[in-house]
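R.M. (postdoc): so does anyone remember the format we settled on? I'll just put the structure tokens first.
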């Protein structure tokens, strides 16, 4: 069925009010569009928990720094609507910019804790304030029961989970495992930036963190394993921002090996920044 598309908060609220009247539960899947099978998996997981799913599409200028790819970020609304329809989304909210940032808008939602773990925040200082501000708005605007987020953006998942708790927003944030290409590369809207050669090299980010995780499980110390992964990536031409192991819940540096651990990485391949993470 073709999903309904709305562009204003008033129209969004008319639709959700109907669902509430029928006692239906609904999930929201926030995206920046350029829909791929990772996003579609979030919709499928939403449908398992809720009666209805809303997908939002908004390329949020507040989470891009001046030197980042806001202008060339891939946009394809018609293609997105088709894919989201196939995935089973009921409603697509593509807010007009003034629905998100009306004139005079001056509020920022800003977290410490997982948002200041020294990972993405260290390299993209404006990023999480942009994310938490818009995600808080989307949680409140939709009033959804569930919010589906990908583990691919692991720090983001922890940050929005904490934000919903701290602000008593009655929504359950659900993390969904990363959807990958056949060779292991995490699906990402930004993969379209990769040249054919870079696309082949790109799988090294997943394979090197997978090897590091195996080595740690096999008894190698964390420092040596992450150093090895970093060196492997550098030798392949990546510029590595970080490859690090953190507590999988708090994102703090681990104190001992029997904590739940996550290996988390970010590296540049040419002009494209790739991120990935897996559990150890
Ligand atoms: P984006 O449009 O890139 O901002 O992503 C929107 C949502 O989709 C976020 O919750 C991402 O973590 C999630 N997502 C992106 N890529 C994947 C993937 N390969 N697997 C699962 N979720 C993903």
């Amino acid at each position: 069925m073709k999903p309904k598309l709305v562009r204003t908060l008033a129209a969004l609220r008319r639709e959700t009010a109907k669902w509430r009247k029928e006692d239906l539960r609904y999930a929201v899947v926030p995206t920046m569009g350029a829909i791929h099978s990772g996003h579609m998996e979030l919709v499928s997981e939403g449908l398992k928990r809720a009666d209805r799913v809303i997908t939002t599409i908004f390329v949020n200028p507040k989470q891009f720094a001046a030197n980042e790819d806001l202008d060339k970020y891939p946009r394809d609304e018609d293609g997105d609507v088709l894919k989201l329809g196939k995935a089973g989304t009921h409603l697509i909210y593509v807010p007009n910019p003034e629905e998100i940032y009306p004139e005079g808008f001056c509020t920022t939602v800003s977290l410490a804790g997982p948002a200041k773990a020294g990972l993405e925040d260290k390299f993209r200082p404006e990023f999480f304030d942009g994310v938490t501000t818009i995600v808080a708005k989307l949680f409140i605007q939709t009033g959804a029961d569930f919010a589906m987020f990908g583990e691919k953006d692991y720090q983001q998942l922890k940050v929005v989970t904490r934000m919903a708790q701290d602000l008593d927003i009655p929504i359950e944030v659900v993390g969904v495992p990363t959807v990958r290409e056949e060779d292991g590369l995490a699906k990402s809207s930004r993969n379209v930036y990769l040249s054919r050669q870079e696309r082949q090299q790109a799988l090294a980010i997943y394979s090197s963190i997978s090897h590091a995780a195996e080595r740690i499980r096999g008894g190698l110390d964390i420092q040596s394993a992450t150093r090895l992964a970093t060196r492997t990536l550098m030798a392949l031409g990546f510029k590595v921002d970080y490859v690090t192991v953190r507590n999988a819940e708090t994102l703090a540096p681990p104190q001992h090996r029997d904590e739940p651990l996550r290996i988390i990485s970010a590296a540049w391949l040419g002009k494209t920044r790739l991120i990935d993470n897996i559990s150890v």
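R.M.: ...and that's the designed sequence above, right after the tokens. Also worth knowing: The first strand starts at residue 4 and ends at 6. The pocket of adenosine monophosphate is lined by residues 31-32, 38-39, 41-42, 149-150, 152-153, 176, 178-179, 186-189 (CB under 6 Å).
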